[in-house]
Amino acid sequence: MLTGIDFLDVVRLTPLVSIDLIVRDADGRVLIGHRRNRPARGTWFVPGGRILKDETLDAAFARVAEAELGIGSLARSSARFEGVYEHHYHDNFADEPDVSTHYIVLAYSLTFSSAVPIGRPDQHSGYLWLAPSDLLARVDVHENTKAYFR
Protein backbone atom coordinates (compact mmCIF):
# COMPACT_ATOMS: atom_id res chain seq x y z
CA MET A 1 0.00 0.00 0.00
CA LEU A 2 1.29 3.45 -0.86
CA THR A 3 1.87 6.15 1.70
CA GLY A 4 0.12 9.48 1.17
CA ILE A 5 3.40 11.05 -0.02
CA ASP A 6 4.04 8.20 -2.49
CA PHE A 7 0.48 8.37 -3.80
CA LEU A 8 0.79 12.13 -4.27
CA ASP A 9 3.87 11.45 -6.43
CA VAL A 10 1.82 9.01 -8.50
CA VAL A 11 -0.97 11.57 -8.92
CA ARG A 12 1.54 14.26 -9.90
CA LEU A 13 3.36 12.06 -12.44
CA THR A 14 0.82 9.68 -13.99
CA PRO A 15 -2.83 9.26 -14.87
CA LEU A 16 -4.91 7.05 -12.61
CA VAL A 17 -7.18 4.33 -14.02
CA SER A 18 -10.65 3.99 -12.55
CA ILE A 19 -14.09 2.49 -13.01
CA ASP A 20 -17.27 4.57 -12.92
CA LEU A 21 -20.65 2.94 -12.38
CA ILE A 22 -23.62 4.43 -14.20
CA VAL A 23 -26.42 2.88 -12.16
CA ARG A 24 -30.02 3.17 -13.34
CA ASP A 25 -33.20 2.07 -11.66
CA ALA A 26 -36.25 0.54 -13.36
CA ASP A 27 -37.55 4.05 -14.13
CA GLY A 28 -34.32 5.07 -15.90
CA ARG A 29 -33.18 7.37 -13.10
CA VAL A 30 -29.44 7.56 -12.41
CA LEU A 31 -27.77 7.21 -9.01
CA ILE A 32 -25.42 10.04 -8.03
CA GLY A 33 -23.62 10.75 -4.77
CA HIS A 34 -22.51 14.03 -3.21
CA ARG A 35 -18.71 13.72 -3.00
CA ARG A 36 -16.98 14.15 0.34
CA ASN A 37 -13.43 13.75 -1.01
CA ARG A 38 -11.15 15.53 -3.45
CA PRO A 39 -11.06 15.82 -6.35
CA ALA A 40 -14.58 16.99 -7.20
CA ARG A 41 -15.49 17.46 -3.52
CA GLY A 42 -18.91 19.01 -3.07
CA THR A 43 -20.31 17.95 -6.44
CA TRP A 44 -22.72 15.19 -7.42
CA PHE A 45 -21.01 12.33 -9.20
CA VAL A 46 -21.69 8.74 -10.26
CA PRO A 47 -20.14 6.07 -7.99
CA GLY A 48 -16.69 4.84 -8.90
CA GLY A 49 -13.17 4.14 -7.78
CA ARG A 50 -9.57 3.56 -8.76
CA ILE A 51 -8.19 0.29 -10.04
CA LEU A 52 -5.39 -0.87 -7.75
CA LYS A 53 -1.96 -2.12 -8.81
CA ASP A 54 -2.08 -5.82 -9.85
CA GLU A 55 -5.87 -5.88 -9.53
CA THR A 56 -7.77 -7.47 -12.40
CA LEU A 57 -10.62 -5.52 -13.99
CA ASP A 58 -13.10 -8.10 -12.71
CA ALA A 59 -11.77 -7.83 -9.15
CA ALA A 60 -11.71 -4.02 -9.33
CA PHE A 61 -15.28 -3.90 -10.62
CA ALA A 62 -16.51 -6.16 -7.81
CA ARG A 63 -14.60 -4.20 -5.16
CA VAL A 64 -15.85 -0.81 -6.42
CA ALA A 65 -19.46 -2.09 -6.60
CA GLU A 66 -19.23 -3.41 -3.05
CA ALA A 67 -17.56 -0.27 -1.69
CA GLU A 68 -19.74 2.26 -3.52
CA LEU A 69 -23.08 0.43 -3.69
CA GLY A 70 -22.90 -2.15 -0.93
CA ILE A 71 -23.38 -4.97 -3.44
CA GLY A 72 -20.96 -7.84 -2.97
CA SER A 73 -19.79 -10.18 -5.73
CA LEU A 74 -21.21 -8.15 -8.62
CA ALA A 75 -19.70 -9.43 -11.86
CA ARG A 76 -18.36 -7.05 -14.48
CA SER A 77 -20.05 -9.25 -17.10
CA SER A 78 -23.40 -8.10 -15.66
CA ALA A 79 -22.67 -4.52 -16.77
CA ARG A 80 -22.49 -2.89 -20.18
CA PHE A 81 -19.20 -1.21 -21.09
CA GLU A 82 -19.95 2.40 -22.11
CA GLY A 83 -16.45 3.47 -23.11
CA VAL A 84 -13.24 5.15 -22.03
CA TYR A 85 -13.36 8.71 -20.70
CA GLU A 86 -10.78 11.19 -19.45
CA HIS A 87 -11.34 13.23 -16.30
CA HIS A 88 -9.09 16.18 -15.48
CA TYR A 89 -9.18 18.00 -12.15
CA HIS A 90 -7.22 21.05 -11.01
CA ASP A 91 -6.93 19.67 -7.47
CA ASN A 92 -5.94 16.39 -5.82
CA PHE A 93 -6.83 14.20 -2.84
CA ALA A 94 -4.30 15.98 -0.57
CA ASP A 95 -5.20 19.54 -1.65
CA GLU A 96 -1.53 19.98 -2.55
CA PRO A 97 -1.06 23.17 -4.62
CA ASP A 98 -0.13 22.84 -8.30
CA VAL A 99 -0.87 19.10 -8.49
CA SER A 100 -3.69 18.18 -10.84
CA THR A 101 -5.41 14.79 -11.06
CA HIS A 102 -5.89 12.94 -14.34
CA TYR A 103 -8.07 9.84 -14.61
CA ILE A 104 -8.59 7.40 -17.44
CA VAL A 105 -12.08 6.09 -16.69
CA LEU A 106 -13.71 2.86 -17.79
CA ALA A 107 -17.44 3.53 -17.61
CA TYR A 108 -19.92 0.69 -17.06
CA SER A 109 -23.69 0.91 -16.87
CA LEU A 110 -26.02 -1.25 -14.80
CA THR A 111 -29.78 -1.28 -14.45
CA PHE A 112 -31.45 -2.62 -11.33
CA SER A 113 -35.14 -3.49 -11.14
CA SER A 114 -35.26 -3.10 -7.36
CA ALA A 115 -33.74 -0.77 -4.77
CA VAL A 116 -29.95 -0.66 -4.64
CA PRO A 117 -28.36 -0.76 -1.20
CA ILE A 118 -26.06 2.21 -0.78
CA GLY A 119 -22.65 1.70 0.84
CA ARG A 120 -19.85 3.95 2.10
CA PRO A 121 -21.02 7.15 3.78
CA ASP A 122 -17.29 8.06 3.94
CA GLN A 123 -17.36 8.56 0.15
CA HIS A 124 -20.65 10.44 -0.27
CA SER A 125 -22.69 12.59 2.09
CA GLY A 126 -25.95 11.82 0.30
CA TYR A 127 -27.43 10.15 -2.74
CA LEU A 128 -30.02 11.10 -5.35
CA TRP A 129 -31.84 9.28 -8.13
CA LEU A 130 -32.30 11.67 -11.06
CA ALA A 131 -33.59 11.40 -14.60
CA PRO A 132 -30.75 12.11 -17.05
CA SER A 133 -32.48 15.33 -18.17
CA ASP A 134 -32.68 16.54 -14.55
CA LEU A 135 -29.06 15.56 -13.94
CA LEU A 136 -27.94 17.56 -16.99
CA ALA A 137 -29.91 20.63 -15.84
CA ARG A 138 -28.27 20.85 -12.40
CA VAL A 139 -25.24 23.09 -11.89
CA ASP A 140 -24.01 21.02 -8.94
CA VAL A 141 -23.62 17.80 -10.96
CA HIS A 142 -20.01 17.53 -12.11
CA GLU A 143 -19.33 17.97 -15.82
CA ASN A 144 -17.53 14.62 -15.93
CA THR A 145 -20.74 12.92 -14.82
CA LYS A 146 -22.82 14.93 -17.27
CA ALA A 147 -20.56 13.71 -20.11
CA TYR A 148 -22.02 10.21 -19.73
CA PHE A 149 -25.46 11.52 -20.72
CA ARG A 150 -24.65 13.90 -23.56
UniProtKB/TrEMBL annotation:
Q: Which domain of life is it from?
A: Bacteria
Binding of Mg(2+): at which residues?
G48, E68, Q123
Ranges for the Nudix hydrolase domain? 12-150
From which residue to which does any coiled coil extend? Answer: none
Instruction: Write down the Pfam families for this protein, in alphabetical order.
Output: NUDIX
User: What Gene Ontology terms describe what this protein does at the molecular function level?
Assistant: GDP-mannose mannosyl hydrolase activity; metal ion binding
Q: Which cofactor does it need?
A: Mg(2+)
Name recorded for this polypeptide: Colanic acid biosynthesis protein WcaH
Give the organism the record lists: Paraburkholderia terricola
